[in-house]
Fold this sequence. Notes:
alpha/beta, eight-stranded parallel β-barrel, 16% strand
Amino acid sequence: MTSTRPLHLAAELAPGSGRPGPGPDTAARTVALARLAEAAALDFVTHDDSFARPGLDALAVLARVAPETRFVGLVPTVTTTHTEPFHVQAAVATLDWVSRGRAGWRIEVSPTGAEARLFGRRPAPPTAELWQEAGEVAEVSRKLWDSWEDDAEIRDVATGRFVDRRKLHHVDFQGATFSVKGPSIVPRPPQGNPVTVVDATRPAARDTAAHHADVVLIRASSAEEAAALRAELHRTARAHGRDPGQLRVLLSLTVDLDAYEGGPGALAELIAGWHGGGAVDGFHLVPTVPERDLELFAAGTAIRLRDRGLFRTAYEGATLRDHLGLARPVSQYATTAASA
Length: 340
């Protein structure tokens, strides 16, 4: 069975295990990699980050990449543990503005005691509690992104009015570990809500992923296992009142295109087979050596997929939501005001 569903492709840019860490060429390197991904017309790139190891802040690095690219989506890892949700959402909204609607964020938690001691605020809670908290951060972030209606900015020079305060909304959110009054300090992002990505390779993250993510990353050793995980995520999303058709499930796959087993051609066959059979909506590639593997992917795998009519030849939209086929959400407060 073949599928007419769009194929979604993404790639990780951070150096792999054993690769050089941050240095004076980090920004130039990341820009070059993002341009390779854009030349291949990938939906988005990710940049991993963690409090557990040294390195530059992923969100700041991709903000540097934004003006050097035009279409590819930019998705940094953002840790929700030990950070303030209000500041997190403002930073992600700002990335959406500086990239003109190409931002996402990959939610991550910080489970270790060593990471907790870096901040000194609290001991590390159990992982399940951290993912519950991460879900609340995702929820309040959407509320804050919606707290400015799209036409809240009026910029009336004659009267000196910058914003219509009737179109700003307090979110008054109370979570298990934090509360936020709002509204945001950043106007509503170009995408309405930047794209939320959750790595659900760990079972503890799956409920949060199904409840809050636009894109879910999984790992599986067979197409059957991947299809079962995708079906599970769809069932859970439906139980949370969501439309499973608005959830994109991507297989996260480590690739070494200079080895083993057929190189770029074999990868194209694997992608076509798993996607065509309905196991996944696409692939998130984690290159062993990003500089080498992304170039081989663009010159080999992507061309083979296009020759078979499976992947875009050029971007058809401008935003990350466009690439993923996701609608721009209406502000929940604007809808409430209109129906009042």
